[in-house]
Amino acid sequence: MLEKLSSWEKKTRGRGIRGGAGRLIRNVWPRFQLSSLLGREQTPAQAAPTAVGTFQYDWFTWNTPFFEKYLAHLRGKPCQALEVGCHEGRASTWMLQNILTHPDSRLTAIDLYLQENFWDNIKSAGGLEKTHLIVKPSREALRQLPFSKYDFIYIDASHWTIDVLEDAVLSFRLAKVGGVIGFDDYLWDDERWNQEGTPKAAIGVFLKIYKAKIELLEQNQQVWVRKLAD
Fold this sequence. Notes:
By secondary structure, the chain is an alpha/beta fold. The protein is 33% helix and 18% strand.
């Protein structure tokens, strides 16, 4: 996978293109093509003047209304957040500045690779003491975290069906009853890169199977649910 340009890995979680093909892609594909891979245009980092840190990509800013709507009740309270797929930390820094504002709030972030600018961005948001990063595949990291701990879980790692479903099922047990789970890119589907499926297929199955245990809050470009029972 794209070990250096892990904006691509962010969407495939290091489980698809490997070996020579992966090295070729990460060495020769220009950055502007990465946006087309994801089926949407990149927003320049400069487009979010309120953001702190240095970012190459912005796949987050247009999602802030969902975060404001469904996480406002956590602002200023001691809460625990889990981010599955953090990349450069754009969502991480926003949460640290706007939601995880209590001194005892904590963010656990998972990613397959450590981006060079991640910790600098976290520092710019004043979140060094609040943030714990786990650098390993989400399917491994999620199995090592405690049940019923998190007030909010954001799933934005691999976009392939099996990976998204596995992240969803593993994350469900980690959320507190009453906790919120958000999924990014519900409608993502690029025929050039969806050979192993899309998020929508996995999230749809999750919503159906867990229907009695969740409240559906949002189903659009993102999907948000509240956990009602274990």
